[in-house]
Write a structure and sequence with these properties.
The chain is an all-alpha fold. It has two helices and no strands. It has a domain at 25-54. It has helices spanning 2-22, 33-53.
Amino acid sequence: MNRRKKIIKKLQKKDKKANAKLHKSSKPVYVSKAEREKLVEQVSSVEEDGATLK
């Protein structure tokens, strides 16, 4: 019985991992504080360039 239980548990674990891969979370990807600052800096520089062209 013990061997059978181990095999079943192993297969269930494998199924659980496969199922988890299929259903990715809808949680947004983490963006570090430094990355956010870079993005804000890029956006502000683009806006300044656009303002000087007008």
